[in-house]
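Escalation from tier 1.

The customer reports that the assembly of two entities below gives different structure tokens on two consecutive runs. Tier 1 could not reproduce it. I'm attaching the input and our single run for tier 2 to review.
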Amino acid sequence: DAKTTQPNSMESNEEEPVHLPCNHSTISGTDYIHWYRQLPSQGPEYVIHGLTSNVNNRMASLAIAEDRKSSTLILHRATLRDAAVYYCILRDIGWEGNTPLVFGKGTRLSVIA
Amino acid sequence: EAQVTQNPRYLITVTGKKLTVTCSQNMNHEYMSWYRQDPGLGLRQIYYSMNVEVTDKGDVPEGYKVSRKEKRNFPLILESPSPNQTSLYFCASSSGQGAQKTQYFGPGTRLLVL
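Tier 1 run:
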């Protein structure tokens, strides 16, 4: 899987929007961009994924740059429950074999009440 | 509720005493996997299973065994645990292989080997 770069930590006020950036300058044309998060003392949890177009679901939005070299996870209104480590992961859709998730260091998001 | 369950959640044991960590999913998923999480090393895959009776090694299989006799269960066996297996373990499942498949994780099992 290609490498991703994320800030180590970010802070947000409760009920404010949060934009979590991810750089993936070596992304290939067959890489999907996935986001997972890990809340304290819990297992990782899927958030969202996309290929080229922006994506929305009940948890978040994913904005993908036109050249696909970067993306941004958007939490529209951060709550205390959103405090977690967020991981941006690239996964090659051309491979249908074993595809373990490769977690980097991620971004630790703190939410202030 | 769709979920992956693991037991026990916390375990303290001594070197050499065989143990099993159970993992069960209720989503009828074919693919299951075990990871360990260590500070500074992220999550690393131990073993995976593509379906019943089909298992294979991940990146760090030494010291571990698995079995997949039923679709819903994928136990992790440590025949002779050692202190370097002290870690946080996660079981995961998905509806198939491939990069588009969302993986669902259990709550984790924190293991301390003395």
